[in-house]
Design the sequence.
């Protein structure tokens, strides 16, 4: 089931108290048969710009200060399954003119899943799928444009939301009805019901990423709380100056922890 109902509830949300020590949200890894073409597509069609390293896309400028802008990164995969049907269902962008954006994305090779429609008393929304199988929800949030949200579909949204709050903090978002989500600075993470969704690894949206300041301390805390690590923290920074580790959230949501240890972005306050 595609993310067709997120924005219907968005304008009816209320914000709860911020969980202690919210960890900065960092990135999303997408898969593509041609990562270079995917990078160019997101830059050209979704108002992206060059990120921290080659092939990474950001949607707001890096100012040299925290929080760091969210990045999209691309993994080469010959035939990844689409994001629909996975626990990481979709990503979302906000634009002032949804109709024009849908037309331009369709002309650039996106497939329209849900045409533009007005939601009475709220706003407009549409859903497309990029050329590599990533479901993209387009919304018209009057408060901000650019990258907007991520949607998970899991068997128990309340339990997954509690897990995420315990692991990474965040600001709880209460939506209309029983929909739940979290906010990390300017990025929303919606946690919606889903039946039989597949683990994210190897899908068009492979994994999410958070950015701890101290990966060793964070990893120790997560392990003490019973979080499953699929890859332990790297002892030394990689070629990008990052230290990384991988954990798995309920339902098979793959998550990377990345500390910008020895790089320019790591110096951002």
Sequence:
């Amino acid at each position: 089931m595609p993310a067709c109902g997120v924005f219907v509830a968005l304008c009816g949300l209320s914000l709860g108290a911020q969980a202690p020590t919210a960890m900065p949200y960092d990135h999303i890894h997408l898969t593509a048969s041609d990562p270079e073409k995917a990078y160019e597509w997101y830059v050209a069609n979704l108002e992206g710009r060059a990120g921290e390293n080659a092939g990474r896309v950001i949607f707001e400028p890096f100012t040299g200060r925290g929080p760091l802008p969210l990045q999209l990164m691309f993994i080469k995969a010959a035939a990844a399954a689409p994001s629909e049907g996975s626990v990481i269902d979709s990503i979302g962008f906000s634009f002032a003119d949804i109709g024009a954006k849908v037309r331009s994305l369709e002309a650039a090779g996106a497939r329209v899943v849900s045409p533009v429609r007005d939601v009475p008393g709220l706003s407009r929304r549409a859903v497309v799928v990029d050329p590599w199988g990533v479901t993209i929800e387009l919304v018209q949030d009057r408060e901000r444009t650019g990258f907007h949200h991520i949607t998970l579909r899991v068997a128990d949204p309340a339990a997954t939301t509690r897990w995420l709050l315990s692991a990474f903090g965040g600001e709880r978002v209460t939506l209309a009805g029983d929909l739940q989500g979290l906010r990390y600075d300017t990025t929303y993470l919606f946690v919606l019901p889903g039946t039989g969704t597949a683990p994210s690894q190897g899908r068009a949206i492979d994994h999410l990423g958070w950015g701890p300041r101290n990966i060793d301390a964070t990893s120790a805390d997560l392990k003490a709380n019973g979080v499953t690590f699929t890859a332990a923290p790297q002892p030394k920074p990689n070629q990008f100056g990052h230290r990384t580790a991988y954990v798995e959230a309920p339902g098979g949501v793959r998550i990377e922890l990345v500390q910008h240890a020895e790089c320019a972005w790591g110096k951002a306050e």
Notes: Helices lie at 6-10, 35-45, 98-107, 157-168, 215-224. The chain is about 20% helix and 35% strand. The domain at 6-267 is CATH 3.10.180.10 (2,3-Dihydroxybiphenyl 1,2-Dioxygenase; domain 1).
